[in-house]
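Input structure tokens:
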């Protein structure tokens, strides 16, 4: 009888041990932020990532979504991840450049010939190099480049059909050297503003316009006070998904692999969704949002911004120039 009681006790202790281990495994939480509303394109991307992480890890990693700058602003999130105070964030490429200047190769105007060219870059050896170099220099993990969003231009003053129509427009620009130089080359007056200040500046007329992906223009309701939509596709804005080294080090090797796979799969799946939606959203902005749309000939815009591409390739040095060359080679 004593032997039976000992066996029962041992079995109970084993069951408790297994239960405790499972409980501990389930307690890994990722607080994941983004600057836009939950229903925005950032929110949809983050939700897809959350779903895949929790599926692939069988719930041992929980992703808690924090929209609308709850845990950080997009301008401050990269630094917060370096400090380990934020676990993960979606950050537009141009807001990464102040922390890792090679990201500006993706910000250069008219750098990518088309979406297929961009995909060959980010999904190939160049993209792998960029992920590795960023992590080595900043400690932050670039999990996926995410979907490509062509930035559409909008303003409250006039339709834009030629380069001359850009002259003198006060344009909200992210605090990014390449983007500031690009709008200067186009004849506009760029005004650098943090994203958190942008909606108010547009609505009050502090600036005349700006540029974002079509979905953002819709989600943030910019069509309500910016009547002119211009399809320039001058920048391709990627929305990479990042994680802090502090968070990644809390994971087991298996969990880390599952999180990386979840990010890659979410990025590929969401990229396909976005590609099919862009024209639909532009159509909605015109037919439902009331914007007037123009499609200028891009030739003179491309010529006007060539100096920006040349200047920054020269200014940033050999490593930057080599990356530009690799991206251009991927177009062939």
């Amino acid at each position: 009888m004593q032997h039976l009681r000992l066996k029962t006790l041992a079995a109970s202790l084993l069951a408790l041990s297994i239960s405790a281990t499972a409980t501990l495994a389930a307690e890994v939480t990722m607080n994941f932020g983004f600057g836009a509303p939950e229903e925005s394109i950032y929110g949809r991307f983050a939700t897809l990532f959350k779903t895949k992480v929790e599926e692939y890890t069988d719930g041992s990693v929980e992703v808690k979504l924090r929209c609308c700058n709850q845990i950080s602003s997009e301008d401050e999130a990269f630094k917060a991840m370096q400090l380990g105070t934020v676990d993960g964030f979606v950050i537009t490429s141009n807001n990464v450049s102040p922390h890792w200047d090679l990201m500006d190769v993706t910000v250069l105007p008219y750098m990518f010939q088309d979406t297929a060219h961009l995909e060959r870059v980010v999904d190939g050896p160049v993209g792998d190099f960029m992920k590795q170099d960023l992590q080595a220099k900043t400690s932050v993990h670039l999990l996926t480049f995410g979907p490509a969003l062509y930035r559409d231009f909008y303003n409250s003053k006039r339709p834009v059909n030629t380069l001359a129509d850009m002259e003198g427009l006060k344009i909200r620009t992210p605090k990014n050297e390449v983007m500031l130089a690009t709008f200067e080359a186009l004849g506009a007056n760029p005004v650098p503003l943090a994203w958190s200040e942008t909606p108010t500046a547009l609505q009050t007329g502090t600036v005349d316009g700006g540029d974002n992906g079509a979905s953002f223009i819709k989600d943030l309701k910019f069509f309500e006070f910016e009547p002119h939509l211009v399809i320039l596709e001058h920048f391709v804005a990627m929305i990479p998904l990042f994680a802090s080294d502090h968070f990644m080090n809390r994971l087991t090797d298996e969990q880390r692999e599952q999180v990386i796979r979840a990010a890659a799969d979410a990025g590929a799946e969401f990229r396909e969704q976005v590609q099919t939606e862009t024209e639909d959203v532009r159509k909605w902005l015109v037919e439902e949002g009331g914007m007037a749309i123009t499609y200028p000939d891009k030739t003179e815009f491309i010529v006007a911004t060539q100096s920006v591409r040349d200047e920054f390739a020269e200014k940033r040095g050999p490593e930057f120039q080599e990356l530009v060359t690799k991206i251009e080679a991927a177009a062939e």
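The chain has two domains: 28-149+238-279, 150-236+281-329. Residues 28-149+238-279 form a domain with the D-Maltodextrin-Binding Protein; domain 2 fold (CATH 3.40.190.170).
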